[in-house]
Specification:
Layout (H helix, E strand, L loop, with lengths): L18 H18 L13 E6 L5 H12 L3 E6 L11 H9 L5 E6 L4 H6 L5 E7 L5 H15 L6 E5 L6 H12 L3 E5 L15 E3 L2 H7 L2 E4 L15 H8 L3 H5 L6 E3 L12 H4 L6 H20 L9
Parallel strand pairs: 1-2, 1-3, 3-4, 5-6, 5-8, 6-7, 8-9
Helix pairs in contact: 1-11, 2-11, 5-6, 5-11
Bound molecules: phosphoric acid mono(formamide)ester.
The site of phosphoric acid mono(formamide)ester (CP) has 10 residues, from α2.
Length: 315
């Protein structure tokens, strides 16, 4: 397995890792992708490592993908979900995590609604932390698996035109994608309603557009994001019907373009809102490849971070 070393002891966000870290994760994921396609999909790499998956927000893909990645690497795994825990009795995040760490846990994979929760923990505990999504901030393994899936289709991303469509304001996937794709040299654009695109976003070195057809024409790859109604305390769009009309991606729109586009979505999809079924399930879509690659990417991240155990923990 890979001889390289990450520059970090935690994965708190794509902002905090280097281009070399990303390339090393991709090279390591290539090897693990080969492993998980063998008849015997398990390797003993993390046999002496105990990992706690702490999910304070709902998840299907990320939670199962991390758990499978950990089991494929032979780690010992415990799972925590906030809804069935003593958090509902008023226990703090730090108390909860310190109690779990007393059970001799080495690594924490956590999803939490508060942006920066992982940075806070990394400053207060000794275990290694992997961010599985912190509110509207970052979702680093999603961005890594997205970029890895793009690379599989179009080769190195330097100079490639990639547009992220949808609710940029409330999306941790958007910010992590922007950091990851710009580090890899891609030309990045976001497209959506003006109310769902933060004003600061162009300071990250990307383009902004409010025109879906023109942006689809421009890009080679469209990464379509979900409208996150659960994070919208006020109305940012008049109705889902109107959103779908102006910003939804459907087959008629794709058929009107000169070139075939690659369509991605991190899931869960609001079918008929940001993406129509005849696109989500079409030959344009690589959505299930993204899910498959998620396991290999997470195996790579866990393996490379576990190799750093014993280094002084800091970020
Ligand atoms: N893509 C993603 O984070 O999906 P889940 O919320 O199901 O984990």
């Amino acid at each position: 397995m890979s001889q390289g070393t990450l520059s970090t002891n935690h994965l708190l966000g794509i902002k905090y890792i280097t281009d070399d870290d990303i390339q090393l994760i991709f090279e390591t994921a290539n090897k693990f992708k080969e492993v998980i396609n063998r008849p015997i999909k398990k390797v003993p790499s993390l046999r002496d490592v105990t990992i706690a998956n702490l999910f304070f927000e709902n998840s299907t893909r990320t939670k199962l993908s991390f758990e499978l990645a950990e089991k494929r690497l032979s780690a010992d795994v415990i799972n925590f979900s906030s809804s069935s825990s003593s958090v509902s009795k008023g226990e703090t995040l730090l108390d909860t995590v310190n109690n779990i760490l007393s059970m001799k846990v080495d690594m924490i994979v956590m999803r939490h609604p508060a942006p920066g929760a992982h940075m806070f923990l990394a400053n207060h505990i000794d275990a290694q932390i992997i961010n599985a999504g912190d509110g509207t901030h970052e979702h680093p393994t999603q961005a890594l698996l997205d970029a890895y899936s793009m690379r599989e289709r179009v080769g190195p991303l330097m100079g490639k035109r990639i547009c992220i469509f949808g609710d940029i304001m409330h999306s941790r996937v958007a910010l992590s994608n922007i950091y990851c794709l710009t580090k890899l040299g891609a030309k990045v654009r976001v497209c959506g309603p003006p109310t769902l695109i933060p004003k600061y976003i162009s300071s990250l070195g990307i383009e902004v557009s409010y025109n879906t057809k023109e942006s689809l024409d421009w890009c080679q790859i469209a990464n379509v994001l979900r409208i996150q109604l659960e994070r919208q305390e006020i109305k940012y769009i008049p109705s889902l019907r109107e959103y779908s009309l102006y910003y939804g991606i459907n087959k008629k729109l794709l058929d009107s373009l000169d070139e075939k586009k690659i369509i991605m979505h991190p899931g869960p999809i609001n079918r008929g809102v940001e993406l129509d079924t005849d696109v989500a399930d079409s030959e344009h879509s690589i959505i299930l490849d993204q899910v498959e690659n998620g396991v290999a990417i997470r195996m790579a991240v866990l393996f490379l971070l576990a190799n750093k155990r014993g280094d002084k923990l800091s970020h």
